[in-house]
Design a protein that fits this description.
This protein has eleven helices and 20 strands. With 461 residues, it is α+β, with helices and mostly antiparallel strands. The chain has two domains: 383 residues, Beta-lactamase (3-Layer(aba) Sandwich), CATH 3.40.710; 75 residues, Immunoglobulin-like (Sandwich). A seven-stranded antiparallel sheet has the order 4-3-2-12-11-10-9, sandwiched between helices. Helix 6 runs antiparallel to helix 7. The protein is globular. The two termini are 37 Å apart. The relative contact order is 0.16. The N terminus is likely disordered.
Length: 461
Amino acid sequence: MKSLFTTILVSTITLVQAQFSNEVADSLQKILEAALPPGHLNPGAVMNIYVPGEYNWSGAAGYSVSGTTTGIVAKTAVNTDHFRVGSLTKLMVATSVLLLEETGQLSITDDISLYLRSSLINDTIQSSTGVTIEQLLNHTSGIANAAANQTCQQDALSDLTRFFSLEEAVNCGASQGEEFVPGSSWSYSNTNYTLLAMIIEEVTGQELKTYLQTNIFVPLNLQDTYVPESNELTEDHLGCYWQVGFPFGLVDMSIVSPSLYKGWADVVSTTEDLTRFLEALLGEQIISEASLSKMEAPNPESSNYGLGMELYTINPDGYQGHSGEVGNTSGLFYSNLSTNLIPNGYYISYNFTYQGASSLVDVDQKVYTYLKDLEASPAGFLEGQEGAQVDVYPNPTSGIININTNVNEVLNVRLYSTQGQLIKSEIINGKSVNYSGLDNGIYILSITSENQTFTKKITLN
């Protein structure tokens, strides 16, 4: 499956700060607020919508936790609040494994017995045939999910700050017995990523969190992304509340040992940092095109899962990334929606303070439908600096476009087809561009200054 992000490769991972209009921003905010359940304890949420190279919006709703507390609400949520990203961690771990393959330190076709001690393979896992790294990545290993072990789950919920070793986590999964012969079926299992964490640490001689920090977080300047050292988060953050049922009821998981989720759900981040990560991943700034293609290829046993990446369609555009729950609900996806106003798709990242939010229905699909149905006109879509004006003429034109604006800055002018294909991009100091020689038809003209972007539909004849 070819990368969905191929139309424009943005050379920087810093999100541009041009803003949607008040009308669009208010509509996105209402979608976020409507997704909070009435009557739920301490509901809160954050969300980021980013149109590559164009527009960026972040919002928050409800409540979050201020500093190190017991998880009790202390403040109104803001869009910079941190949160535990849950299984979005798997996308980062899978990226790390493919990066190690690129550097020749392993192959995803290798049997895991090459990297793990024989007693763990023979006495704990006891698979009927060999298991490969690739089968861990795409959940076709047949090794059971530790989260499905009721005894282990009750032990964890009884003492959320208890330390769990990787070996204990593997045993919680494998002790339930083999679910199927490796490679013959598909079943989502957190245990697979616990084993991947062990392999990464064996190959690199580093703790997983150190490898992630050195090879992903720092190079991408993800300053708000990390694996926590302690049970409590010290900065303002979203809480984690899970209605488990008898005998625990509602469990406050805001303070929890990161060892419980090591390798598959232990990362902490913000919505904008997550968007930067996915943009860099799909833009081939972390791993190569060949490695990315492996991630995006659905395995034969599941059409919706590649290597650490969930693959969906929404009416009928591609939608890829990962979702997660760890006493909360998170999502990080890229949609290749292509319209006049959003010619190159968009990114969405979010977190809700409670596990089990209906994010696909209440957030993903509603945001997609709203953005798709926006009128193909810049009016009401984008808002620049106060008093800023821009005009292009003549329109229609035979080729020469004059640009009249009161913004005294160098302009980046890009021309797209109505299908989102970049036709021409140039930096200008003057006030005109020349599109003579192009085919007659309708195009989208995007004019970007330092702080804002204007979009115009033009006709060449």
